[in-house]
Amino acid sequence: MGGKEPWMDQQAAHPRGDLGKNIADADFPIVVGYELNGQQQSEIAYNQDELDDILDDVAPVHGGPGIPYSLDSLEDMEPQDRPVGAEIEQLSAGKKMKITKRLLQNLIREAMAADRGVELTQPGVDEAAISGAWPDKVYYNGESVFEIFYSDSSRNAQWSFVENEGYGDGQESYLGYDPGSDKWFMGFDVFADERDDYGEFSEPDTGGEMEGLVIELDGTGQPLNVMGGFPGGMYPEGLRGIKKSVPGIIDVRLD
């Protein structure tokens, strides 16, 4: 996936007049330094456009999230402390390692997502960021996904639906969202109920084959219909089946 965070869509680049003289009048090449996940990072900007690109990722402008940074002239830095070219240096256990710009952007996005949360309806949602923000800071239309889909009322409605489909034992094991259709899907590892000679449900026979049951939910966590059943359970058959049927689905919870 990828793409810029929602707050970045409000700006194409850093406006020169809003950033202060130390940035607008920067002497290039300039080194942008900042801390990410407890480690010092640095990157060289050779012109204003490159500086704008770097600050789009790290600077807390226009009220958006960001990472505190510093600017230093490359000429003023000691040779051993200078980043090489447009690559970034990451210090780990006293050794320097090169990481790519794309990886840096992903690391920044994940770190900030874990801090402020992920809105699933925004474009460019990253599953790694969702995993880092789960369960407290993953949102759907501004509401907590966990509170929507795992509240007592939602869980009761979901399990009543599953039981009415003929399943008496199992557990929820998957939650996914398809932004293209604005639909939600929940998966269960379940066992079918057994019927006695009179057609009445008896205790579930958990010695039978487990099935992966996927149901469609609305945006309030209420069940709508059965999307499909997959012999063997949700993993791997159920997950493979839902990916085939809903190619654009985002994995929100995997268990």
Can you give a write-up of this model?
The protein is α+β, with helices and mostly antiparallel strands. It has two domains: 111 residues, no CATH class; 117 residues, no CATH class. Helix content is 27%, strand content 31%. The chain is built from seven helices and 13 strands. Strands 3-1-2-4-5 form a five-stranded antiparallel sheet. Helix 4 links the parallel strand 6 and strand 7. The radius of gyration is 25 Å and the shape is elongated. The relative contact order is 0.10. The N terminus is likely disordered.
User: Would you list the SSEs in sequence order as H and E?
Assistant: HEEHEEEHEHEEHHEEEEHE
First-last Cα distance: 21 Å
Give the beta-strand count.
13
Residue stretches low in confidence (pLDDT < 50, at least 5 long) are 1-22, 84-97
Biggest sheet record: 5 strands, antiparallel
Quaternary state of this entry equals single chain
Q: Give the helix proportion (percent range).
A: 25-40%
Overall structural domain count: 2
Q: What is the CA-atom radius of gyration, in angstroms?
A: 25 Å
Label the overall shape.
Answer: elongated
Task: Please indicate the percent range of residues in DSSP E strands (runs of 2 or more).
Answer: 25-35%
What is the spatial order of strands in the main beta sheet?
3-1-2-4-5
Mean pLDDT: 76
Helix-and-strand structural type: alpha+beta
DSSP helical segment count: 7
